[in-house]
Design brief:
This protein is of the alpha/beta class. It contains seven helices and four strands.
């Protein structure tokens, strides 16, 4: 059920135990071969594959395409809000739904840079509503939900990168006309020499062309496999939210 399709009386009449799903992504550079809207396009496809399974049992908000992408601002076309502003934006969206009476709110994220402010946002919200025992606030990045590592033997990459084998494969499946010469993109290694500490970085510290990973290994067939997997993982999360007993997560 899409929020954008409903009248306000219809929303008012919904059960407040219906999960509310808020997709959040970004508009930012994706190397020499991928469009700026990659994160939003891919997440929208995952959500589209999931939403049809739930009918009127889940309320889906429209995708929020503006994300925290300041680390990409050295690359033209990137649009971003600062981490603090983004955190407040997410908090405000959730507060709107809480004000309308909803109790189960799930952010599904499609951009790595949103993860830290997103988790901080729901942490702060929980402190604000600390007396509420019936409130479930979640922030989940779709490619981190699986328990199988997201892999099979056909993939070189063992994790999500940026304009990488995974994202390029998904875009080849979804909108191949938007993908440039990915075969010419040389691999850019993952990693942080300072691990397990966390280095403060901007994207140019890690990659000159703008991608991270091995996009030259992408294929539409891999993309479909990833879409199926990620849609299954998001579906399973929402099913758990629907089944929540209103008290304990394991209930």
């Amino acid at each position: 059920m899409q929020l954008t399709d409903l009248t306000w009386p219809r929303v008012q009449g919904l059960s407040k135990d219906i999960p509310v799903v808020i997709p959040v992504a970004a508009l930012e550079q994706h190397g020499h071969h991928m469009p700026l809207f990659t994160d939003s396009l891919l997440l929208a496809e995952v959500i589209s594959r999931v939403s049809g399974h739930f009918g009127d049992a889940v309320l889906f908000a429209p995708l929020q395409w503006l994300g925290n992408s300041h680390h990409h601002l050295d690359f033209s076309g990137t649009l971003s809000v600062s981490p603090r502003v983004y955190l407040d934006l997410l908090s405000g969206l959730a507060e709107n739904f809480i004000h309308h009476g909803f109790r189960r709110i799930v952010f599904v994220n499609g951009h790595g840079g949103n993860d830290v402010p997103g988790r901080q946002s729901i942490f702060e919200l929980r402190q604000t509503h600390r007396q509420r025992t019936d409130l479930l606030l979640l922030f989940a990045t779709y490619w981190l939900l699986g328990t199988d590592g997201g892999q099979d033997a056909r993939f070189e990459q063992q994790q999500m990168g940026h304009a990488c084998e995974w994202e390029t494969s998904m875009m080849l499946k979804l909108a191949p006309h938007l993908v440039g010469d990915y075969h010419a993109a040389k691999p850019v290694a993952f990693g942080n020499a300072f691990e397990p500490s966390s280095r403060a970085w901007v994207t140019q510290d890690r990659t000159e062309p703008g991608h991270i990973g091995a996009p030259h290994l992408a294929s539409a067939e891999k993309g479909e496999w990833l879409f199926l997997k990620f849609a299954r993982d998001v579906n399973a999360l929402i099913q758990r939210v629907k089944a929540w007993d209103g008290r304990s997560w394991e209930g």
